[in-house]
Amino acid sequence: MATDDENKDLTPDRLEVVESVINLLKLQRKYDVMEGLGSGTYGDVLKMFDPESETTFAAKIVTHKMITEAESLLWPTLDHPNIVPLTEFIDLSLIKAAVYIMPIQATSLRAKLIEREFRLQVDALDQVKKWLLQTLCGLEYLHSRDLVHLDVKEDNVLISQSSTAKLCDFTCLNKATKPIRSAKVGSPFMYKPPEAFYLEGTVEGKPCDLWAFGIMTIEILADFFLANNLPQIEHNWLMDVHPTLHEILQLLGKDMDIVGI
């Protein structure tokens, strides 16, 4: 059984499923839980230890209803230094859950950005620029395979023990060969391009990724995170920022048509 400390970060509604998965993995594979790494809409991530190989790894636990076809089928095919690889997919049909096994990483980009010791380093800005470039390389790899991430943000960029940035969390992974329903874009609303703001429409996936990357880059380099600094941000975004951006982009589109771009 996991201890209370190990469970403190798990979402209450999924605690029973997570406990069942932990018990089954401990019984069948002798895995031990070390700590909770985080919880999201789709699953809970734990740091686990395999005594047989004496290795630690990250395990994302999801219920069957939260399994996405792209994540389970396409993620295993990805092979790039700036993409967190999927080591193993474990389907636990008995308890209607599944586990994604992946290498453990040192930290996340978000955690690094708020770390006081890192911020005081003289080369911190150069390091951040390198991580942003590596993140973009990971995106470029996905796009070259006609795949899109659709949830680019600081939390979904991990930093390895060798200080390499890697894209993670492929819950929203999708094919870029056809229009995507706006509701499938997992990015926070302030990271969504104007055309993705209305859930009933469709969008092109690659521009959504690049827009989110651009907003993330601006936030990082300006040291100004929208969600943390703007009061009533959702209301402001809907009533002011989004309509203004949409109008500007519409005008830019017309100008490009005029000059033949």
UniProtKB/TrEMBL annotation:
The keyword Nucleus does not apply. ATP binds at residue 60. GO terms for cellular component: cytoplasm; nucleus. Residues 31-261 form the Protein kinase domain. PANTHER family: CELL DIVISION PROTEIN KINASE (PTHR24056), ECDYSONE-INDUCED PROTEIN 63E, ISOFORM N (PTHR24056:SF246). Belongs to the protein kinase superfamily. CMGC Ser/Thr protein kinase family. CDC2/CDKX subfamily. This is Protein kinase domain-containing protein.
